[in-house]
Amino acid sequence: MKEFAVEIDNLVKEYSGVEVLKNISMKIPKGKITTILGFSGAGKSTLLKHILGISKPSEGLIKVMGTDLGSLHSKELRDFRRNFGMVFQYAALFDSLSTFENVAFPLREFLSLGNNELHDRVENLLTAVGLEQDSFNLYPHELSGGMRKRVGLARALALRPKIMLYDEPTTGLDPITTKTVNDLIFDTANDQSEHELTSIIISHDVKASLAISDYIAFLESGEVIEYLPVEEFKSSNNSMIKKFIELS
Ligand SMILES: Nc1ncnc2c1ncn2[C@@H]1O[C@H](COP(=O)(O)OP(=O)(O)O)[C@@H](O)[C@H]1O
Ligand SMILES: [Mg+2]
After folding, report:
1. 55 lines ligand 1 (CB under 6 A)
2. Minimal CB count within 10 Å: which of 12, 17, 142, 240?
3. Ligand 1 centroid vs 46 CA: distance in angstroms?
4. What is 136-149 written as a DSSP string?
């Protein structure tokens, strides 16, 4: 199925007999921004871990770029994960490495680039996320929250992933930094659209999600109760979703 980045088919996940994900089926299109919204505890992060192949389904099937994750052995799965760029709630930078070295890290780990090429790649990545030369040698503790997010994003993009995954990228940030990060996610998706970069965002920030997403899924108690293009989602008649939009 070439047009889908991720296909989830009858996914069930249970922990000690409790179903945390209940029979989820959804297809996430390539080259678009899809946000999975829901209250805390709905199962959003668990769903993301299944897309990454970190968690194994109790039942059902997950295909990423047409590959059934269940068919991959652990080494193949590790390699396969290079298709993903992951941005966490906290930037999760290496504290002992400079901005430059944080972004160089995955390149050194996985590619054998010459020094010049490595430098060019890192500088291009850092410039693309709006960082300037004078911050390249700073360490994470010397950066603002927004700058750390930019470094985290540059590092996630380093290996030219096909799918960017964001788990609560703006939770805990002040409103201005939140706006910056949302703009950055949106701009990144558009800058890379010729490579068909797919963005999947986990969020409970309704306003930003409505502003930047192409599609929105609403997850509640482990079930996808709505999954629609953003404009249709806004006028959903589902009472839970209306409440969620009102509360925000
Ligand atoms: N490893 C685990 N073992 C047992 N229960 C878990 C585990 N991971 C998540 N859960 C449970 O699954 C539910 C959904 O969690 P999570 O996916 O983190 O929700 P969200 O990201 O939407 O806040 C929660 O009730 C949580 O306690
Ligand atoms: Mg979560």
Report:
1. no
2. 17
3. 6
4. TT--GGGS-HHHHH
Rounded Cα–Cα distance for residues 229 and 69 (Å): 26
Q: What is the pLDDT of residue 170?
A: 86
pTM > 0.85: yes or no? yes
Q: What are phi and psi of 108, to 5 degrees?
A: -65, -40
> What are the residue ranges spanned by the domains of the chain?
4-91+163-247
Give φ, ψ of 20 to 5 degrees: -90, -35
User: What's the topology of domain 4-91+163-247?
Assistant: Rossmann fold (3.40.50)
Q: What is the chain's mean pLDDT, rounded? A: 92
pLDDT of residue 148 exceeding 70, the answer is yes
Q: How far is the CA of 220 from the centre of ligand 2 (A)?
A: 13
Say if CB 93 and CB 102 are below 8 A apart.
yes
Residue-wise pLDDT for 200-236, tens only, equals 999 988 888 999 999 999 999 999 999 999 999 999 9
Nearest CA to ligand 1 atom 9: 46
Whole-number Å distance between alpha carbons of 136 and 103: 10
Q: Is the CB of 171 under 6 A from ligand 1?
A: no
Residue 2: pLDDT over 70:
no
The verdict on the CB of residue 41 being under 6 Å from ligand 1 is yes
Residues within 5 Å of ion ligand 2, judged at the Cβ atom: 44-45
To test ligand 1's pocket by mutation, which of 13, 15, 204 has the most ligand atoms within 8 angstroms of CB? Answer: 15
- Confidence class for position 1, pLDDT limits 50, 70, 90: very low
What mean pLDDT comes out for the span 58-79?
96
